[in-house]
Amino acid sequence: MRGLLVPVVAAAAVVLPVSTTHAAGGYDRCPDGYYCMFSGLDGTGDMIRLRASAPDLAALGMNDRGKSDWNRTASTVYLWSDKNYSGCTAGTSTGPTGKGNFFPTYRDFFSSVRIGGPGGPSCGTPPGEGR
């Protein structure tokens, strides 16, 4: 009887499906048509995804926490230093150039996001820093 049990177990092991898919990570978590902000560099950490403007990122748990982003919308996105679209702004273009890490000076800095215009006074480009 023992000899019959072994082939059945071996056959069952062969039939089990193996999944080769994996969850998206980093920037790839951002769906097409959304603006995404990440709490970590290079699209890591917590993520928010927006299809509409957000006057107060505190309500989404991302106030002064963003370190990188990806704009997958059809519009320029304006990041505001203060809530309710006040303070200074930095723009994030659409498309492949709209993805990257924030200047070190502007990490953990933004408090609201406006998709489309208008922007406000520029926060400027810190000397010697590139995006």
Automatic annotation (TrEMBL):
- Endpoints of the signal sequence: 1-23
Q: Which UniProt keywords apply?
A: Signal
Q: Which protein is depicted?
A: Peptidase inhibitor family I36
Give the species this sequence originates from: Streptomyces hiroshimensis
Instruction: Specify the taxonomic lineage.
Output: Bacteria, Bacillati, Actinomycetota, Actinomycetes, Kitasatosporales
